[in-house]
Amino acid sequence: MFTGLIEAIGSVSKIERRGASTRIAFGSPWGLTEIKAGDSISVNGACLTVVDVNEKTFTADVSNETIARTTLGELKPTDPVNLERPLTPADRLGGHLVLGHVDGMATITGRREEGGFVTITFRTSEDLLLYIVEKGSVAIDGVSLTVNECKGNGFSVAIIPLTSERTIISRKRVGDKVNIETDIIGKYVQRFLSGQQGEERAAKSGLDMDFLAKHGFK
């Protein structure tokens, strides 16, 4: 689990296609002696497992599912990436709960700079917009951001100068794609309110209100 507060900007060192997966090596400014095989690292918002590490780079295998759902398949050597290590129990949760499970992608449709701030507008699919609300949280390339406005088939966010300096998001241009992870709390609320899947599952199992009443639950 992550917070969406990016720790460092790394870069792609090497890309190797391996049949059903892709192995990518990333250069990092961290002291990599603290990272070991099996650790998780968020790369542009996608949670990847470290399979190898040395003094300068760490390597991760990326499945075809992740390649299809995220922008990682479009990376090229030397491309910059946002990096974040997992949340620990002692950390302050300054952003929001980010799982590193990318839901899909969005395309930048507008970009405006004003007073050091950068306002970026995105277009994405209806199934993702269902969980994106004004003043709610969204992770864009792993960066925890507040939604300024939802309008039509898109939404916008404002990037403060500090976020511009410490992440790659302000380097993006109109037409670029980004990874989107919507708020996990919103997903659970929507599922609870819809109730459809829960009702279908209860019907199949025989667990319903009549069953509960017969067994003393009222």
Would you give an account of this structure?
The protein has 218 residues and is α+β, with helices and mostly antiparallel strands. The relative contact order is 0.17. The longest helix has 11 residues, at 184-194. The protein has two domains: 8-84, Elongation Factor Tu (Ef-tu), domain 3 (Beta Barrel), CATH 2.40.30.20; 104-193, Elongation Factor Tu (Ef-tu), domain 3 (Beta Barrel), CATH 2.40.30. It has six helices and twelve strands. A six-stranded antiparallel β-barrel has the order 1-2-5-4-3-6. Strands 7-8-11-10-9-12 form a six-stranded antiparallel beta barrel. The radius of gyration is 20 Å and the shape is globular. The two termini are 38 Å apart. The chain has helices spanning 64-69, 126-129, 161-166, 184-194, 196-205, 209-214; strands spanning 8-18, 21-27, 40-43, 46-53, 57-63, 80-84, 104-114, 117-123, 137-140, 143-151, 154-159, 177-182. Strand 9 (137-140) and strand 10 form a beta hairpin.
Strands of the largest sheet, in order across it?
1-2-5-4-3-6
Per CATH, the architecture of the largest domain is Beta Barrel
In one word, what is the shape? globular
Structural class: alpha+beta
Give the assembly state of these chains: single chain
- In N-to-C order, the SSE pattern is EEEEEHEEEHEEEHEHHH
- The helix content, as a percent range, equals 10-25%
Number-wise, the strands total 12
Q: What is the CATH domain class of the largest domain? A: Mainly Beta
- C-alpha Rg, in Å? 20 Å
Main pleated sheet: 6 strands, antiparallel, barrel
CATH topology of the largest domain: Elongation Factor Tu (Ef-tu), domain 3
Tell me the count of domains.
2
Count up the helices. 6
Flag low-confidence runs. Answer: none
**How far apart lie the N and C ends?**
38 Å
Report the β-strand fraction as a percent range.
35-45%
Mean pLDDT: 88
